[in-house]
Specification:
With 113 residues, the chain is an all-alpha fold. It contains 3 helices and no strands. Helix 2 runs antiparallel to helix 3. The relative contact order is 0.08.
Length: 113
């Protein structure tokens, strides 16, 4: 028979007291996690997702929109590519500013509440 280092049979059924203790321990861990609030609620997950989508849209939309406006102004004024480059840099700067504002904002503040 295979015997482990505790000199117990490896194939013997587990003691019912140990099984009961494991179940009670798991139940106590779940209750403590709920009480401590470690699992994010659905509302907080929605808020996190909303802020993430706003940051993503700012990082993509601001430089793209500014670059498009710069390209149109370049075509109209005949200054290709200088106004577009300036507007791209302005768009990136505004996107970084927007991300920094969102990072420094406390949960529950701002336009959402």
């Amino acid at each position: 028979m295979a015997v482990d280092e505790n000199e117990q049979d490896a194939h013997s059924p587990q003691d019912a007291r140990l099984t009961s203790l494991d179940q009670r321990l798991d139940r106590a861990k779940r209750e403590e996690a709920l009480r401590a609030g470690t699992k994010p609620s659905e509302e907080s997950q929605r808020l996190i997702r909303s802020v993430g989508m706003r940051i993503l849209s700012d990082l993509i939309g601001l430089p793209f929109g500014a670059g498009l406006i710069g390209w149109l102004l370049d075509r109209w004024a005949g200054t290709t590519p200088w106004v577009m480059l300036a507007m791209l840099f302005l768009g990136f700067g505004l996107a970084v500013r927007s991300v920094m504002r969102a990072a420094n904002q406390r949960p529950g503040e701002g336009s959402g509440k």
